[in-house]
Design brief:
InterPro entries: P-loop_NTPase (IPR027417)
Distance between the termini: 45 Å
Protein name: Sulfotransferase
Organism: Rheinheimera tangshanensis
Helix content: 25-40%
Structural class: alpha/beta
Order of helices and strands: EHEHEHEHHEHH
Number of strands: 5
CATH architecture: 3-Layer(aba) Sandwich
Radius of gyration: 18 Å
Shape: globular
CATH class: Alpha Beta
Largest sheet: 5 strands, parallel
Strand order of the largest sheet: 2-3-1-4-5
């Protein structure tokens, strides 16, 4: 049997997707962010996936292997596993990936509603760092010294770029038949339903309650401005956005 992982920044419909896919087949074991932030994507990296929480991560791998050994298809959605897919691939016989990407400015706006990278009101509370620059594979590692000077919107955009960059790195070395890319803007369409059904080898996937999708943070306040005074000099982000079919976050840099 196969293990499937959804790769995204978060805020891409993955919780809704998990609830939907669980109803497609009794042979599916679907988990949405099963370890939550214990993957430590801020401190672990593709080159050092077990630097933190190794025991917990290995126990999770054992759980996945048990599900597959019992004849189930394992499906994991949510953002935290994005830096561990090569590690999973080394230990699981067959692993397939669904890459869900989203317009960079929309993604940043949505992530800021969750206060990602936003300093907390109370100084003793931790910052919700979804990523920290560290790995030699990182797209913008050469600019690491600027990280502490960035505003929350810039850090979220940097994070968006690193997730997409890592996804494209994975895809270069992944069998074409084991990789599916979907845009968030089309995720709830009949076309995506058919693509997912084919990819998951589930021809009778009729449950698709797109009309019931709800963004539980849709009305949350977003108090941080979408300004990128330092990142706008990084053409790598604009080119990455264009590669995925989106406009540059700063249109004057898109040509």
């Amino acid at each position: 049997m196969t293990a499937y992982f959804v790769l995204s920044t978060g805020r891409c419909g993955t919780q809704w997707l998990a609830e939907t896919l669980q109803l497609w087949s009794d042979t599916f074991v679907v988990r949405h962010e099963p370890l939550h932030f214990q993957y430590r994507p801020d401190l672990n990296s593709p080159s050092a996936p077990l630097a933190h929480n190794a025991e917990l991560l290995n126990a999770h791998l054992d759980f996945i292997q048990q599900q597959i050994a019992q004849g189930y298809t394992y499906i994991e959605t949510g953002f935290p596993c994005w830096r561990h897919l090569d590690w999973f691939r080394q230990h699981l016989k067959q692993i397939k990936v669904v890459h869900i990407h989203r317009d960079p400015l929309q993604a940043v706006h949505s992530l800021l509603k969750l206060n990602a990278f936003v300093p907390p009101f109370l100084p003793h509370l931790p910052i919700k760092n979804l990523y920290l620059p560290s790995d030699e594979q990182d797209l913008l590692l050469q600019h690491k010294a600027l990280w502490s000077e960035l505003n929350p919107a810039e850090k979220n955009l940097w994070y968006w770029a690193e997730v997409q960059h890592q996804a494209l790195r994975y895809q270069q070395h992944w069998p074409e038949a084991d990789w599916l890319s979907l845009s968030f803007s089309e995720l709830f369409s009949a076309k995506s339903q058919q693509q997912l059904a084919t990819f998951l080898d589930t021809p009778t996937a009729n449950y698709w309650p797109a009309q019931q999708k709800v963004d539980q943070f849709g009305l949350a306040m977003q108090s941080q401005p979408l300004e990128f005074p330092r990142l706008c000099q990084f053409d790598e982000i604009a080119q990455l956005a264009k590669h995925l079919g989106y406009a540059s976050p700063w249109p004057d840099k898109s040509s």
